[in-house]
Design a protein that fits this description.
Blueprint: E1 4-9, H1 12-29, E2 35-40, H2 42-51, E3 62-66, H3 70-75, H4 83-88, E4 107-108, E5 111-112, E6 115-118, E7 122-127, H5 128-132, H6 134-144, H7 154-163, E8 172-175, H8 184-194, H9 212-225, H10 240-248, E9 252-258, H11 259-267, E10 277-280, E11 292-293, E12 297-301, H12 308-318, H13 321-330, H14 337-340, H15 343-348, H16 355-360, E13 362-363, H17 371-387, H18 392-406
Helix pairs in contact: 1-13, 8-9, 8-17, 10-11, 17-18
Length: 407
């Protein structure tokens, strides 16, 4: 029999987990099939699986697809509707084993197009050892007149980032992921928008960013990212993985990133901040609520796969409580409630149970076939804001005009 081919999101914990799970699966079921797992960067993964129709044509049997893309993938008829498989032989505790917010986005037109694989909404990750240090607390209070604690507002975020920015110690106030890949800066812009009471949609449910909250969001973001007294100088070249690793190396006091990069600090060997990390909700503008972003990864089966039954059996195995816990111990983020509340996991990662709180404030991106194109336009808008003096108001207007043409 041919190999089973899996398109994997390039990230060490994903790669090591999948290999271990496949070996265990084969051992348990006496299967001699080899799995070829190809790690791909975000952009290449989308290209390979959806744009070049790899899942549709059977080049890939299984693909890691994130929820930004799943609507697209289902509409392009690239991924298999798993409903009949689930009805015949559901994953253990399905659907009650998962938080509702991890089951919605793959439900499209009465079909289920994937199973949750890796999760962890956006949050504020911070160095609790620095925030709890008595000398730091005293110095901060003398300088700013209030107690040092994780920032509740964006104004406090800037002050704290500048306070902890110490290039001579290779410590920076905060680290961002500003590599223009159509994701990180789009997510950051959305978080700035939502925490100012703004929305991506107007009252007719159409994408509309031409309003004051979006201008304020872009203004703030371009200022903080370009603030050399607050931000890690390599942020402009970092994707979320690189930003997460820089934080784990002890190079930043704060990061706005996925929960998974906080938990990674506790489990990877090269982490220099093990035991010194905590997470909390994101700051917001005064008079507005915090927000988080829920984008998660799914296991999907290619519609063109010749090994659909085998692929689904593996997915059932890979999403079991034991497998979910294994992913977490490898440095990924399990999706099951059982993992979030697992005593052993919370001993290793003391803030793991906070995932549930993050999900309560987690918003999602609009599910529309044009979203990937809109995301690209927002990405270009943010990049222009960072690299030019064009007023935010003009950038927002121009971007909305281009979005209108797509819609």
């Amino acid at each position: 029999m041919e190999k089973l081919r899996i398109a994997v999101r390039k990230f060490d914990p994903f790669e090591s987990t999948l290999q271990k799970l496949w070996d265990l699966f084969c051992l348990k079921n006496n299967i001699t099939v080899e799995a070829e797992m190809i790690p791909l960067e975000l952009h290449d993964l989308y290209e390979e699986t959806i744009t070049k129709e790899g899942l549709k044509k059977g080049k890939w049997d299984i693909g890691h697809i994130n929820t930004d893309w799943i609507f697209d993938a289902a509409n392009e008829k690239a991924v298999l509707d798993l409903t009949s498989f689930i009805n015949q032989n559901p994953p253990q505790d399905y659907p009650d084993g998962w938080h509702q917010s991890l089951l919605n986005l793959q439900q499209i037109n009465n079909g289920t197009y994937g199973l949750p694989f890796h999760d962890g909404p956006e949050c504020l990750i911070f160095r609790k050892d620095l925030f709890e240090d008595l000398a730091e607390k005293q110095n901060f209070k003398t300088q700013f007149g209030y107690e040092l604690h994780p920032p509740k507002t964006w104004e406090q975020f800037v002050q704290i980032a500048e306070f902890f920015n110490r290039p001579e110690e290779n410590l920076y106030g905060c680290v961002f992921a500003n590599y223009p890949d159509g994701h990180n800066m789009v997510f950051d812009f959305c978080l700035q928008l939502w925490t100012r009471g703004g929305s991506l949609l107007n009252d007719k449910n159409q994408i509309d960013i031409n309003h004051s909250a979006a201008i304020e969001a872009l203004d703030f973001y371009r200022n903080i990212v370009n603030n050399k007294n607050a931000v890690h100088p390599k942020s402009k070249n970092f994707g979320s993985v690189e930003a997460g690793l820089a934080f784990a190396e002890g190079e930043a006091a704060m990061a706005i990133n996925w929960f998974g990069f906080a938990s990674m600090c506790e489990v990877i060997a090269e982490s220099k901040v093990k035991g010194k990390v905590d997470i909390t909700e994101l700051p917001s503008d005064l008079n507005h609520k915090t927000a988080s972003l829920n984008v998660y990864w799914l296991y999907t089966i290619g519609i063109g796969s010749k090994h659909k039954e085998l692929a689904y059996d593996f997915l059932r195995f890979a999403t079991s409580p034991k497998s979910d816990k294994l992913l977490t111990n490898e440095g990924g983020i399990g999706c099951r409630k059982s993992t979030w509340n697992d005593i052993e996991i919370n001993k290793i990662i003391p803030f793991y149970h906070k995932l549930e709180i993050l999900h309560e404030n987690a918003l999602t991106l609009p599910q529309t076939p044009v979203w990937p194109k809109v995301a690209e336009l927002i990405d270009q808008m943010v990049l222009k804001a960072l690299e030019s003096d064009i007023p935010s108001k003009k950038l927002v207007e121009e971007t909305q005009n281009t979005i209108q043409k797509i819609i």
